[in-house]
Amino acid sequence: MSFSDQVGRFRTDNPAPLYLQLQQLIRDAITNQLLAQGEAIPPERDLAIEYDVSRITVRKAIGGLVEDGLLTRRRGAGTFVAGRVEKSFSKLSSFTEDMAARGRVASSRWISRAAGTVDPEESMALGLSPGAPVLRFHRIRSADDVPMALEYSTVAGYCLASVEAVGDSLYEALDAAGNRPARALQRLRAVPFGPEQAKMLGVDAGAPGLLIERHGFLRDGRAVEFTRSYYRGDAYDFVAELTDL
Ligand code: 16G
Q1: Where are the domains of the chain?
Q2: Contact (CB, 8 A) for 99 and 86
């Protein structure tokens, strides 16, 4: 079956620009599961021939869907239908590890990172005395360059030498310092994204988000991190295995 048999063809009475029409066909095909998660999208030049449009039109259509997180590009392999990320709610993994496990490449953009002293809320969350040093890391987290989450972490000062110790992964740095959390408590809540957060994630203001607060602890019970992660509601499923223990 050809791609256009699968997702449909242009309607002659549709006045919308062709790239938007192609985008809509692919978007609908994904929503209606005519295209499955992980399925490959044909190369640009094949689509251009099949739909009788320029390669620029195809590139624009596909580019928009990649930006929206519906398609994902893998270097050297092509373009694929992106799956929603299924994240285990019971595993103490990092964002970088979660993405690597799905064959996606994690990256971050710093909003800010700074050393400071604990504020009253952090002091409660981390069980630290007033005046205790902390390190704060605020990041936009992406998978295959598509923004997926905003993350605001406060780490107890005794866990890392400095903010510069953290490169791409906070847990990698904590691991290297021998202070990766061994236990964590998490709380999950639905939140709409405010205008500023929505802009950083490239979603509409008011779009649904999932806020997860993680309190991470060392084996000896001392606190490591208090992190608020705001995940895109349209990209994540949280799954947990339950047993009758
Ligand atoms: C995850 C954790 C977050 C942790 C981060 C480290 C959840 C809900 N949150 O996003 O607490 O700080 O990973 O990721 O899973 P990194 O090592 O890639 O920086």
Answers
A1: 3-81, 85-239
A2: no
Exposure string (b/e) for 160-191, b if CB count within 10 Å is 16 or more?
beebebbeebbbbbbeeeebbbeeeeeeeeee
- Domain 85-239 matching CATH 3.40.1410.10: the answer reads yes
CA torsion sign for 97, 75, 29, 39 is negative
Q: Whose CA is nearest to atom 2 of ligand 1?
A: 94
CATH number of 3-81: 1.10.10.10
Which residue's alpha carbon is nearest to atom 6 within ligand 1?
A: 94
Give the binding-site residues of ligand 1, using a 6 Å CB cut-off: 94-96, 106, 151, 153, 169-172, 212, 214, 225, 227, 229
Backbone angles phi, psi at 111, to 5 degrees: -90, -45
Nearest atom (ligand 1) to Cα of 231: 8
Q: What's the gap in Å between 218 CA and the centre of ligand 1?
A: 15
- Angle formed by the axes of helices 18-31 and 44-51, to 10°? 110
In order along its 245 residues, the chain shows pLDDT tens digits of 899 998 899 988 989 999 999 999 998 898 788 898 889 999 999 999 999 999 999 999 999 888 877 888 887 889 999 877 778 877 899 999 988 877 788 999 999 999 999 999 999 999 999 999 999 999 999 988 889 999 999 999 999 999 999 999 999 999 999 999 999 999 999 999 999 999 999 888 999 999 999 999 999 999 999 999 999 988 888 888 888 87
Ramachandran category for residue 103: left, alpha or beta (phi over 0 → left; psi -120 to 50 → alpha):
left
**How many residues comprise the chain?**
245
